[in-house]
Structure formats: C-alpha cells, structure tokens
Amino acid sequence: MAFSINGPSISSGYSSQTSSSQSFEKLSSGSRINHAGDDAAGLAISQRLSAQLGGFDAATRNAGNAISSIQVADGALSSLSKNIGRIQELTLQAANGGLNDQDRQALQAEAEQLVDESSRILEKTNFNGKELLSSDEDSSVQLENAGTEITVKGKDLAAEFKSLGFEDIDISSQAGANSALSVLDKTSEAVSNRSSELGAVSNRIESTIESIASDKVNTAEAKSRISDADFAKVATELAASLIREKADIAVQAQANSQRGNVLRLLQP
What we know:
This protein has helices at residues 11-29, 40-94, 101-124, 157-164, 174-227, 231-266; strands at 126-127, 130-131, 134-135, 139-142, 149-152, 155-156. With 268 residues, it is mainly alpha-helical. Helix 1 (11-29) packs antiparallel against helix 6 (231-266), helix 2 (40-94) packs antiparallel against helix 3 and helix 4 (157-164) runs antiparallel to helix 5.
C-alpha cells in the first residue's frame, strides 16, 4: 500500500503577500500607480498631466516677470510725467511778460535739470538689462503651450522725445517759452499714450494668470483622480490581505501538524 503525503499549497500565501506588499507601497507613496504594470495607460496620462502642470508654472513665472517689467516702465513714466508737469509750470512762468531775463535764467536752470533727469530716465530705465523706454524691440511673454504668447510692443520714447525737441527746450526768453509749451504738450501726450498701452497689456496678462491658475487647479485634480491612491480602499484591501495571510499561516500550521501525525502512525 502506498501513501502520499502532500504539504499545503503556497500559491495562495504568495498571492496574499504580494497584495499586501503592493498595498503598503501605495500607502507609503500615496500613489495608485507606482509601476507601469499598475496601470500603463493611467501612467502615460499622469505623466502628460505632470508636464502640463510644469508648463502652467513656467507660464505663470513668465507672466509675472512681464508684469514686473511693465511696473518698472510705468514707474518711470510716472516720474517723466511729473517732470514734464513741473517744466510746464516753469515754462508758463517764463512766458509771463512781467519777468526779466534774470528771472527766466533761473527758471531755465531748473528746467535744464529736469530735462537732463528725464533724458536719463528714458535712456537708463531697464528690466534685467532690457531697455524699456529707449527701444522699439517687442517683448513676447511665452505661455504654457508652444506658439501661445502675448506680445508687449516696444516703443522708443527717448528717440521720440529727441525728435520733438525736448532736450533743446529753452525758456530763457519769452519766445522760447511759448515755443516750449507746444513741445511739452506733445511729450506729455506721448507719455500718456504709452502708459495706456502698457496698462492694457498688463490687464491682459493679469487676466491670463488667473486663467492659468484655474486651468492648473483643474489639471491637478484630474491628475489626482488618475494617479493618487484611495487610502480608504487601499487600507481595506491591506486588512483583507493580512487576514488572508494569517489564515494561510494557520492552515499551513495545521497541515504540518496533520502530516506529523500521519508520519508517526506509519512508523513501526
């Protein structure tokens, strides 16, 4: 008579241990997809969404830099406007027929200082080395996708002021003062127009930043739904796996005990 004594199968125990290991990995990483085998399609989508989120961050930084640049230019234009306003006051005084040449020379001295300072502002105002008021070069604000950008038109105010004769203002005579009033009106209008242009672009960029922020939130939520682990579900699966492991151990122990009993019975 032949006897066959088989031990318990280990396939179910191995499966339970693998399930527990995967659950522990998901809980520790917080991610449902830790390997391509977990969800190949989900991993590919998640990676694309991660790249898109990085694009949103870069676009926000680019837009923020553009707004900072516009703010620098706007501050310079504000100083220019004040200087021109003061020169206009001096010019109106110099145009008064009740003043003598000595009075007008004093007014001219102050006007020259203001003209020099205004010229310095026009030539030297820059953001990160890029000239803001003395260049016609456009600036592009790159957004999250290739080919998606906002263009900030350049304008060479310094050259425009020179062509208008701003640097040659002379209010040391009544005739010169009357002539200077026309130049100052045109330069003041140029400053006002440039401020309006930059203000409009700034508003557009700020609106774009808000839109990007909204898109980023929605994209992050989509990525989370795809790749983040459901802690409640994973914890439940882990508990079930641990129970199965304990049951497998108990069954194996019982099987080993029964096998020992059989062997003792077979002994002579």
